[in-house]
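G.,

No rush on this.
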Amino acid sequence: MEISIIVPVYNSSAKLSACIESVLNQEFKDFQLILVNDGSKDNSGSICDEYAKKDNRILVIHKENGGVSSARNAGLDAALGKYVAFLDSDDYIDSFALKVMYDEAKIKNADFVIGGYFFEKTQGTIKHDCAVVKDLQEGFEYLFKEHFINPLWNKLFLREKLTNRFEKSLSLGEDLLFNYQFMKSVDTIATVSNMGYHYVMNDENSLTTIYRKDAVKIAVMLAEKTNEFCEETFGNNPAKNVVAQRCVDDVVEHIYKLVADKTLKNKKMILKKNLNEKYLLETDFEKVALTKNQRLIVALLQRKWYGILILYVKLVTNLR
């Protein structure tokens, strides 16, 4: 068996069949499809079982709800393929997806293959192609800046080097940390222009769009972890300014969501509790491509002027 595809499933009945069918319709046939039903309350589990009856390449794992990281870990423990791929239950892949990634891994003798993908939005489809990258250190800044490093689902992992597991305590940023742990052992990397993954943008009430009180803390933590990875793996940091820019982009976005959320009280205390000023104070933002608005917000955060910051964001939002 060459590829194990791991799909965590939780209350996904509306889109689950399309996801599974996209795997079964692959041109590449030598795969194991692992469906991990993470305590779904709808009929997702039954849908998984019905497909497993029709195709012996499908393994269904039913478990108590433990979150997406726990579900993916269960899938990893059951994986038998030489390579591992991940797929979210509300997304789907084109018929050539597994073949193009597998062929590239074989041709380049690669431990790790990264592919371009599609964003599926209500306004239409956006194609996001990946350039050729032959060396992880040389290509890291580009891969990070263009959002090819972060996701799990646009990658093929050599399973014998996949000894790490997902951090169960996280439900935001866990993909990136998992990728960093694996990438420390990578000898050869390959890229595919577009591997035919369709990432379906989430609804307004999803985990990625509702405000999380720990979102600012996680954004800063991921920047610190990225810098640590670069220093430990490469001996230097080829993407320091890009990492700082991403961090500020994310922090500012989360602050705007915080201020806009009318259900939250004591927003000043939420910021104070979840912000790590140490990173903001120690990072040199002079060479980072920030807007005037972002620079002002960073300055207010560095000085811990949270009340003034919230008033400023309210003012800017009302003027838009």
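When you get to it, here's the other one too:
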Amino acid sequence: MKDIDIEKAITKAEELFREYTENDGYLAETQNFGSESWSASRTLRAWLGLQFRLKGRKVLIIGASAAAVILAAFLLIWPLGDSDEQLTAQHQDIAPVEGEVTLKLSSGEVIAIDKQEESLLETSDGVVIDTRKSELSYENIAPTSEESAMNELSIGKGRTHCLTLSDGTKVHLNSGSTLQYPVQFTDGERLVTLVGEAFFDVAADKEHPFIVRTAAYDVRVLGTAFDVCAYPDDARSETTLVRGSVNVADNVLTPGTQYRYDALSGESSVAEVDTEIYISWMEDSMVLRQTGLNEILGRLQRRFDFEYSISERAKTERFNGKIPMNVNLSVILDQLCAASDLSYSIDNGKLTIE
């Protein structure tokens, strides 16, 4: 048998691993990956980069060498010809919910966007609906000086959707959220009302300030990018600034800061934060930074239908890392429990972690 230079083999494996984790198309080109297996490989890649820390102690590290070994094993044992049904059959537990995305017109008519037969269509008033990209655009609306009609976009559980307002402002709405807005902005302020969570990339217009109204406070901006999280079931609402400047309840935020309001106590504060934690949902992932299980499971409930209970010991665990949100619930729970020596069970939609 030919001798193998282990160091050279590991170096080569690390190079392959870096190519894999940094280039979506690498395996498709070099390993002839079928489309059926690609979604599974992307899920694996998300887990390969996962690192948890528990109570300040590193308990699971997948370094480049170890990850390369896992990647090699994956390539050897994963059947490239498996269908999506075969791949998901391994996790018959709780899949992400596929709620409806609906558009309510000023007339009261409600359009189920996902049920439109055409993938790209334009309504009589100029609204463009692209069901392929999950986008809705008002940029082609004809200018008017009259008071504009109001529309309302609602996002069902487990879904996200993009919206371009008449001024060019981009809005990315999270699961379980509703945005009310004018079909066209006229003179004065550009006011929208949000229930839930959305990321705004606001078109600059010094003459017409942009205002996001929530149940707790208003966010006033001129041109900037920020996330507002104001779910009615959450005691705390947050506004996180990524770029530019915003004014929230007379607090001027700078990039990398967050305004927090506690509805129970009525208290508010401003703190520096890692913005990736609060906008990673737009990429179907969840970034963890010393995050507790209650918060993790609360976020997961926006994508999955389940109730839960956790033990007192489980409540003390803290996790760091990045997990995908477009996989079955057991995939996420397996990793969390493996990193913390916890265990879980699911019975008729009720999750128990001990």
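Residues 257 and 272 are 4 Å apart (CA to CA). DSSP finds nine helices and 25 strands in the chain.

Enjoy the weekend,
O.
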